[in-house]
Give the backbone structure.
Amino acid sequence: QPFVQQEVRYEVRVYRRSHLLEGDLLPPEISDMVIEAAGQEDPRRVGVGDREYELIRYEYLLFPQRSGPVRLPGAVYSGRQVYARGKDRDLVVRARPAEAGGRFWLPARSLRVSERWSPAEPDWQVGRPVKRGISLEAEGLTAAQLPTILPPEGPDLRIHPAGDRLGNQLSGSVMTGMRETTLVYLPRRAGVLDIPAVHIHWWDTERNRNQVAALPGRRIRVAAGTGSAEGQGAPVPAGLKSKTREPVQANGRWTLSVERWRGLGSVLMAVLAVAALWAALRSTGFRRWLIRRLSLVRFVRSCKRDDARSAWAALRAWAAACPSISFPAGPGSLAGQLPDQAAAELWALDAVLFGRETVRWRGAEAARRVPPVLRRLRRQGRTRASVLPELNP
């Protein structure tokens, strides 16, 4: 009885009397299940009763996406001279336990968190960026299941995400997922500042209990930035201040000052801008651009209000203004065109809208992750399926 999204080892054994009976094991297809091939052994001779067979073992890793009973259809081995089907199996998937802490659901055999700073011993200074890499490594999870770690920021120390690096490693029949999040810290005030500790709750599937992986906090001393007083030299002499503000007489005629020429230029630029805007409003491309922009603004505002239906209406309006994007039937179908965490947020929205979630939807992460990916998707004009959505019991 595994938990939802927990790794399940699935082994298929094929016994054949002769290697001449060539065929293929059809990949398993199970609804609400993410399936990863874990390898295949070379054929070997074994005895079963008083007969000898050639045994081939296939291994898969299953990640159930909903709780409750799941039917595993029998494996099918098919060829020109042979067709065989195994027995169906039943699997009972448990929901996330109530005592599991934290925002993310991470059922794993083990989970480690580490960090690295660049430089290793930062010289903290106002306005000087410092890079920090936070790495998660979990045994029994894929990289797509691991979250992006974003520590809280304050007004005196800004944090800017600089991208994630993902990787999976298969050792035997165990999947180990790795995700490294790069963050850029930018101090905005000199003095003593505190970087809070990072706590990541995960569910230990071996001991069946909640665990916490943590990075300790640290206190840093930020020096004042250099060059902050540059450009604040001696005041301009009073005799020079009025020479460019008053008309100057040359050869008995008054000429316009530089400021007046600039004023006339500003008026001319405003007229040209109005003309350009009028022409743009009459073009289809500009109207679509305006609809996309306003739709994403509406989407972000709806997410911040946790208004799932308004957020979905804004996404539909955005997709309708993108000829290169297939019009989505629901957030889940649009999620299939997005990568990683952005797709997970849309799967969560899909679950709330269509009745598979009973908890209140939280749209803050969707407001942050989805709009940049949608802009990039429209520019690229291509799609990429998500590897694994977030928890959807």
Notes: Residues 227-256, 382-393 have pLDDT under 50 and may be disordered. The radius of gyration is 30 Å.
